[in-house]
Amino acid sequence: MDHRSPVCTDAVWRLPVTVCRITQFLGEQTAGALLERAIDSAGDTLQPSMIRDREVVPDFRRSRSRHDFAAPELMAAIDEVLEAVEHTLGVSCQHTEPSYSLNAHNDGDFYRPHQDTSAEFAPRRLLTFVYYLHRTPRPFDGGELRVFDAALPLHTETAGRWQERTWRDWEPEHDSIVFFLPTAWHEVRPVSCPSKQHADSRFAINGWLCSPDPANRGNDASP
Ligand SMILES: O=C(O)CCC(=O)C(=O)O
Ligand SMILES: [Fe+2]
Question: I need a surface site. Which of 11, 39, 71, 204 has the fewest CB within 10 A?
Answer without folding.
Answer: 11
